[in-house]
Amino acid sequence: MEIKIIPAGIYDANCYVLVDNDTKDCAIIDPGGDAEVIINKIKSLGVKVNFVLLTHGHADHTGGVKEIRNEFKCPVYINKKDYEIIRLGESIFGNMAENGDAFIKDGEELSFGNIKIKCIETPGHTPGGMCYLIDGKLFTGDTLFYGSVGRTDFAYGNFDMLQTSIKSKLFTLSEDTLAFPGHGPKTSIGFEKENNPFV
Predict the structure, then answer these.
(1) Segment 89-94 long-range contacts (CB within 8 Å, at least 24 positions apart)
(2) The pTM is what?
């Protein structure tokens, strides 16, 4: 699998374009803005977009969803808990034009091309936070960062829940697992277990 990283939106959220090099199928994680840049990159790769995955519903991770859905006619997956908050119009969350077409929950498995994705629910930063595990690579959204964790002082955040999610769902994975966060550089589960001061 090839991973393309596109900093997107005003907060440079990491948008990940995942490509199965054998089949030329792809999945997009968190298109947070700059939709035209993301669309042009995908077109230059000559791949088929199977779906968009959202790690959570905050606007800086969903800002390009509408344009990408319209361009590639692909479904968008989100946890229902965050979808319901979007419906309430909470300001930091995306708008209804950016919501999902299908809901995902803990333990579900998706696939594109020959690649399988395990969906891991990690509430705390938001109630419906999700991480995605693919062959030793974990896409953590704003749950876990290099040396840090997601903020919980926003509406619907819960620090105790975030700590529990990280310890019980992420730190039980192999220490060699690479973590690709929603902002900033990649890290590893082993490094964060040893060095992250927030967990």
Answers:
(1) 90/155, 90/156, 91/155, 92/58, 92/59, 92/154, 92/155, 93/57, 93/58, 93/59, 93/62, 93/126, 94/57, 94/58, 94/59, 94/61, 94/62, 94/63, 94/65
(2) 0.96
pLDDT value of residue 95: 78
The answer to whether residues 138 and 131 touch, using CB atoms and an 8 Å cutoff, is yes
Query: Residues 66-107: pLDDT tens digits?
Result: 999 999 999 999 999 999 999 888 889 987 666 678 999 999
Question: Residue 124: which of 94, 154, 86, 98 has the closest Cα?
Answer: 154
Class of domain 2-195: alpha beta
Q: How far apart (Å, rounded) are the C-alpha atoms in residues 119 and 105?
A: 7
Quote the distance between the C-alpha of residue 172 and its chain's center: 19
Average pLDDT over residues 45-56: 97
Report the alpha-carbon distance of residue 94 to residue 186 in Å, rounded: 25
Quickly list DSSP for 167-181: IIIITTS-TT-EEEE
- CA-closest candidate to residue 54, choices 2, 8, 1, 115: 8
